[in-house]
Design brief:
heterodimer, A: alpha+beta, 4 domains, eleven-stranded mixed β-sheet, eight-stranded mixed β-sheet, about 50% helix, about 15% strand, B: alpha/beta, Rossmann fold, six-stranded mixed β-sheet, four-stranded antiparallel β-sheet, Macrolide_Exporter_MacB (chain A), ABC transporter permease (chain A)
């Protein structure tokens, strides 16, 4: 029996090659796109799950509120890790990581710049699953000046991994002993370092300060269910540990601190939530967004739906061709359930072929997809472990889903009706089919609108007036290497033709650069309710002109005025926060740390207000910024204006070489800016690709349907032509039905898309409006695409010789 | 074998009600070869469909082998049908995707005959119909006469008690038509009851009895000698 189904199905598919091709191709395209998204989503969801203890690992966070200022940190106090293990018996272990940012490491005579360096406690390898290839995991990070390398880093420096005991020179004069080589940190980890230096090397790690947050700290619980208990005890724990320091250093008890509307609290984030759900100050890497996981999952489901609908529509449209077979089988005594089984097995077979094609195609384009998505997804045996069952499931579920309507529809035919030819009108009267076309094109219109909105928003981010001019700014990132002579270097660069101006500071308005916050009080009462906790940056007098900032009030710093060492310039956001109508001449008291007393503050005079400029993500509001004059040699930025940039670059490089043997590390500010929106750009690109695919698949279905509609009406077309209808009238007649359906889908989908995209935009503080023309363009393109698809078939039918079609019957 | 009494069948459209069968009564005995004739629209096909249990009457009684089946639901009718009745159509109604062998095999599959038995019986019947050499061909590779032989083979492979033939020679030339009629006569002589709808007086002469219909009623019965 079953063999008979397969046989009939197979031959029926072979007989209708065009239909089969459209059906399998459409489904394969849909499934392939779906699979890629599944890879993407699976990768996003897999973050940090490579840790065998991931369920029991939690990161400790700190939330701080000072007056009206709120800061959420992903980092906590230096002594917390050690203390928490001692204090709570159910905390098995804890580990701290501290990002060391950039270091340079000697390889032969060369100094290599390394950006993936961190200090780590010895417990690192107990908490996280970072398998050691060489060396002893228990002791590797115990001694000061020890370094553990990843496998590929070891190969990069020594061409082998058996390097325990070798010495590496870091930052020119520090000798580190290689004590271990671990497997590379998996790509799906929320942190990714090449070098782990022993924490004991870093003197500050022994600090007992309970009032600052700068160490990423992870706890390993004995039992995951204790997390709630721990979270509930953290505030009491913090109070106990920090109470004395608060009294002695700030001069108030925690109760008073809280009374003034402020708080200082600890909480936990589960390790596996960090990548998708955590966006705090001091994250160890750029995290993903759970929203995109939802969006992409939705797109995958949409694409799958469209492909399934194609399948259903094409199969039922073809029903008249299959009807006779159904009739004969019924007359011969086939029960309905056999027929249902037959059509289901046919569709499962198609789905099987489509899935095989989709799998091969998805794996083939994976490298390209990785490049687009900025991912490093690989098919491993572990992938196959879930991929094969999922594929089987897809074949069964999609096959049954897509085949169910044709199966029940076709098997319900009354045999005498069919054999008498009453059911020849295959296309007309397909109410459900029309609904499905509307649904399909509704999704397409939705996706077109979505794509346009995302594209516009990304474009807006790219071209938004940031409040400074990021073009033609060269940033020398490692200017601090020059120590005392950075300032001389800067002054000498200023003399070069082609350099318009130069500024020396590590504080720059692109998000890869330094950030620092500090507390300022509005008046001498030092009341926290009248305090501001802004970005507090050290700049020089050339900063504002070099970066092209605009002043709205007052003046820039002047090198020649000694009094400017007591002056600050604030941005508009700070002025608004402080409630200044007229900021010029106001005074601010900057806390220098320690007890909140006038003697522990420095008094500043506001000499100007600069226009707001964007310096972090456009998802967030512009924060208050206060700048003051100070020598910070973190970086040197140059505004250049030259036609021959390579020549200028080599001049700058040779100038650098006279100051330092280390390689100059530089970047262009506009590129840094683009880099900080790369993940958004990638998401946008992926979205556009999948939307296009969805539309192509929908068109494929429409193309097939139009072909059948035309075929069904061949005789009608013949008669009309004999009676004098011209080609255009016939094309119009055939296209009209489809255009009507597409028009309905536009009406339904547009408001929905409008609503959803507005919701997405809410996530950006700086955003575009969904404009009416976006909807118009989407609707128009849907109609144009539909008409173009249908016209081809209609034209073919209209141009056919009527004699042939009439003789046919 | 068949006894129908006061059988009625109406077709309704929105405004018109057409009477296809009007209190029709007739009887067919086992082993008979009956021809049904009449002009287009007289209700021949409707009658055949009801006799073949493809359609149900609106009123009246239909006793098949002593069982009243007028009220049977579709599944019960299908069950009775596949064991007792073979069909031969004017347009053959072979399944294009199946070979000659597979087409003939189909009824046996639906009655649950084992695979080995199926091969034996299909080969037997193909041999009898002299189309064994065509067993692996597809319907479209055969002439009309050959296709109708396959259709007859399919109708008889299950050894039905009754064969219903709806203008079996309608799509054939006279020579092929005569062959088909000879085949049916042979089957009848071996004991199969045959009811045949035809327009052809020539074909009708093969039967024992001709029932002539007009407007859904029997108008005349001729007993052939």
């Amino acid at each position: 029996m079953f063999r008979n189904y397969i046989k009939t199905a197979f031959r029926s598919l072979l007989k209708n090659k065009g239909f089969t091709a459209i059906n399998i191709l459409g489904l394969a395209l849909g499934l392939g796109a779906c699979l890629l998204i599944v890879f993407y989503v699976a990768d996003e969801l897999s973050y940090d799950r490579y840790n065998t203890k991931s369920e029991r690992i939690f990161r400790v966070n700190a939330d701080l509120k000072l007056g009206e200022n709120r800061k959420d940190y992903a980092v906590v106090m230096p002594p917390l890790a050690k203390t928490i293990v001692a204090e709570f018996p159910y905390v098995e272990d804890a580990v701290r990581l501290k990002n060391a940012y950039t270091m340079h490491v000697k390889k032969g005579d060369l100094n290599m710049i390394e950006n993936k360096v961190a200090f780590a406690d010895p417990s690192l390898f107990n908490v996280f699953t970072l398998p050691m290839i060489n060396g002893d995991a228990k002791t590797a990070l115990a001694e000061p000046n020890s370094v553990v390398l990843t496998e590929s880093t070891a190969k990069r420096y020594f061409d082998k991994t058996d390097v325990v005991g070798k010495t590496m020179v870091i930052n020119d004069n520090q000798n580190f002993k290689v004590t271990g080589v671990i497997k590379d940190v998996p790509q799906n980890s929320h942190f990714n370092f090449d070098f782990f230096l022993s924490m004991s090397t870093w003197a500050d790690s022994r600090s007992n300060a309970w009032l600052r947050n700068d160490y990423s700290t992870y706890v390993l619980l004995k039992d995951a269910t204790d997390a709630k208990k721990l979270a509930g005890s953290l505030d009491g724990f913090l109070l106990k540990m920090s109470g004395d320091q608060m009294k002695s250093e700030i001069g108030m008890s925690y109760a008073d601190f809280e009374k003034s509307g402020s708080y200082f609290r600890l909480n936990l984030t589960s390790l596996t939530d960090i990548h998708l759900k955590s966006k705090r100050i001091g994250e160890l890497g750029v995290n993903g967004t759970v929203q995109y996981v939802y969006i992409f999952s939705a797109i995958a489901i949409f694409i799958l739906l469209i492909a399934c609908i194609n399948f259903m529509n094409l199969s039922t449209a073809r029903s008249s061709n299959r009807a006779r077979e159904v009739g004969v089988r019924k007359v011969l005594g086939s029960p309905r359930k056999y027929l249902i089984a037959q059509f289901l097995s046919e569709s499962i077979m198609i789905t099987f072929f489509a899935t095989v094609i989709a799998l091969v195609a998805a794996i083939a384009v994976l490298p390209l997809f990785n490049q687009l998505a900025g991912k490093d997804i690989a098919i491993t045996t572990a992938t196959l472990f879930w991929l094969i069952p999922v594929s089987v499931l897809i074949v069964l579920v999609v096959g049954s889903l897509a085949g169910s309507y044709p199966a029940f529809f076709l098997s319900a035919f009354q045999p005498i009706d069919v054999l008498k030819g009453k059911l020849s009108a295959g296309f007309k009267g397909g109410g459900l089919r029309s609904f499905l076309v509307v649904f399909q094109f509704g999704i397409s219109v939705f996706l077109i609108i979505g794509t346009l909105v995302i594209k516009n928003q990304l474009n807006y981010i790219q071209t938004i007036n940031l409040g400074f001019d990021r073009n033609q700014v060269l940033v020398i990132q490692n200017a601090y290497e020059l120590n005392q002579s950075t300032k001389t270097f800067k002054e000498e660069l200023k003399q070069l033709p082609g350099v318009t101006s130069a500024t020396m500071t590590g504080f720059l308005p692109v998000s890869v650069n330094r950030r620092s916050t500090s507390i300022y009080f509005k008046d001498a009462t030092l009341d926290q309710k009248k305090s501001i906790f802004p970005q507090s940056w050290e700049v020089d007098a050339d900063w504002i002109p070099t970066l092209g900032m605009k002043m709205v009030e007052g003046r820039n710093f002047s090198k020649d005025r000694l009094s400017d060492s007591g002056a600050v310039i604030i941005n508009e956001a700070a002025a608004e926060f402080l409630g200044y109508k007229n900021a010029f001449g106001q005074t601010l008291y900057n806390s220098l740390g320690g007890k909140v007393e006038l003697t522990n503050t420095k008094k500043y005079e506001v000499i100007g207000v600069m226009k707001d400029f964007h310096f972090s993500s456009l998802h967030e509001k512009i924060e208050p910024v206060i700048i003051r004059l100070a020598e910070n040699n973190g970086a040197v930025s140059l505004r250049v204006n030259t036609k021959d940039l390579p020549a200028l670059m080599s001049q700058i490089k040779s100038k650098w070489a006279t100051f330092s043997p280390v390689q100059m590390n530089f970047s262009f500010m506009d590129q840094d800016f683009d880099a900080s929106y790369r993940s958004e750009q990638q998401v946008g690109t992926i979205f556009i690709i999948f939307t296009t695919l969805a539309i192509i698949i929908a068109c494929l279905g429409l193309f097939g349907l139009a072909a059948y509609a035309a075929e069904q009406r061949t005789k009608e077309i013949g008669i009309r032509k004999v009676l004098g209808a011209d080609v255009s009238a016939i094309v119009a007649m055939l296209s009209k039905d489809f255009v009507k359906l597409v028009a309905i889908s536009i009406v339904v989908a547009s408001p929905l898309a409008w609503y959803c995209m507005n919701l997405w935009l809410q996530d950006f503080v700086y955003r575009i409006e969904v404009q009416w023309w976006v909807v118009a363009v989407a609707g128009l393109s849907a109609i144009v695409i539909a008409v173009a698809t249908v016209s081809f078939q209609s034209l073919k039918a209209a141009l056919a010789n009527p004699v042939d079609s009439l003789k046919n019957e | 074998m068949i006894k129908i009494t006061n059988l009625e069948k109406f077709y309704r459209t929105e405004e018109v009600e057409t009477i296809a069968l009007n209190k029709l009564s007739m009887e067919v005995n086992t082993g008979e070869f009956v021809a049904i004739m009449g002009p287009s629209g007289c209700g021949k096909s409707t009658l055949l469909n009801i006799l073949g249990m493809l359609d149900d009457p609106d009123a009246g009684s239909y006793v098949f082998n002593g069982v009243e089946i007028a009220h049977f639901n579709e599944r019960k009718r299908a069950d009775l049908r596949k064991h007792n009745i073979g069909f031969v159509f004017q347009s053959f109604n072979l399944i294009d995707e199946l070979t000659v062998f597979e087409n003939v095999e189909l009824p046996l599959i639906y009655t649950g005959v084992s695979s080995a038995d199926r091969v034996k019986r299909v080969e037997e019947v193909l041999d009898k119909m002299q189309i064994m050499h065509r067993r692996n061909h597809y319907p479209q590779q055969l002439s009309g006469g050959q296709q109708q032989r396959v259709a007859i083979a399919r109708a008889v492979v299950n050894k039905p008690k009754l064969i219903l033939a709806d203008e079996p020679t309608g799509n054939l030339d006279s020579s092929n038509g005569n062959d088909v009629m000879e085949l049916l006569t042979d089957l009848n002589e071996q004991g199969t009851t045959i009811i045949m709808v035809t327009h052809s007086e020539h074909d009708a002469r093969y039967s024992h009895r001709i029932i002539r219909l007009l407007d859904g009623q029997t108008v005349m019965e001729n007993i052939m000698v």
